[in-house]
């Protein structure tokens, strides 16, 4: 029997989302929406002089899966490079569509294994990772 799609860990993560305040002067902001379910995530980033995320803010209006994903993203995004964020985004997307058997190196993403057969849930799970990767890349270009 496979694990439940909405399990206790998903629900716990959904209630413990770090960095839930928008930044007042971000270097870049990106909003992503899922047309399937209406989930929306806005991510603000400030980059440090070393080219890594120094500050992160987000506004999350999503289902429990999208909230859990935003929680996992925000727990580890500070200190990451745009390249590492793009790699995490791509690994998660490939994992969800079955192109790879693991979600990559980002901590905690294996929790979304029960969502793999539920294609309608994939967009919401990807939103935060898509937004942070795009915001970091955008901030890097404008720096």
How does the SSE layout of this entry go?
Layout: H1 8-15, E1 28-33, E2 40-47, E3 53-61, H2 64-76, H3 82-97, H4 119-142
Antiparallel strand pairs: 1-2, 2-3
Helix pairs in contact: 1-2, 2-4, 3-4
Which topology does CATH recognise? Sufe protein. Chain: A
CATH architectural grouping: Alpha-Beta Complex
Low-confidence stretches: none
What would the principal axes of the Cα set say about the shape? Answer: globular
Q: Sketch the topology as an H/E string, one letter per element.
A: HEEEHHH
- Overall tally of domains: 1
Number of helices: 4
Mean pLDDT level: 94
Give the % helix: 40-55%
The N- to C-terminal Cα distance equals: 50 Å
Radius of gyration: 14 Å
**DSSP E strands, number:** 3
Structural class: alpha+beta
How is the biggest beta sheet arranged?
3 strands, antiparallel
What is the percentage of strand-forming residues? Answer: 15-25%
CATH class equals Alpha Beta
Instruction: Give the neighbour order of strands across the main sheet.
Output: 1-2-3
Describe this structure in words.
By secondary structure, this protein is α+β, with helices and mostly antiparallel strands. The chain has a single domain, classed as Sufe protein. Chain: A. The chain contains 4 helices and 3 strands, in the order αβββααα. It has a 3-stranded antiparallel sheet with strand order 1-2-3, with helices on one face. A hairpin with a 6-residue loop joins strand 1 (28-33) and strand 2 (40-47).
């Amino acid at each position: 029997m496979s694990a439940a799609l909405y399990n206790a860990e998903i629900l716990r993560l959904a209630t413990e989302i770090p960095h839930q305040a928008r930044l007042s002067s971000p270097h870049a902001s990106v909003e992503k929406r899922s047309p399937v379910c209406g989930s929306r995530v806005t991510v603000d980033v400030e980059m440090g002089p070393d080219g890594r995320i120094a500050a992160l803010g987000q506004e999350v209006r999503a289902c429990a899966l999208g909230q859990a994903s935003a929680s996992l993203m925000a727990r580890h995004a500070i200190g990451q490079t745009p390249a590492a964020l793009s790699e995490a985004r791509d690994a998660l997307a490939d994992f969800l569509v079955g192109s790879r058997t693991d979600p990559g190196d980002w901590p905690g993403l294996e929790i979304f294994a029960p969502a793999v057969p539920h294609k309608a849930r994939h967009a919401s799970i990807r939103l935060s990772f898509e937004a942070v990767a795009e915001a970091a890349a955008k901030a890097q270009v404008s720096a």
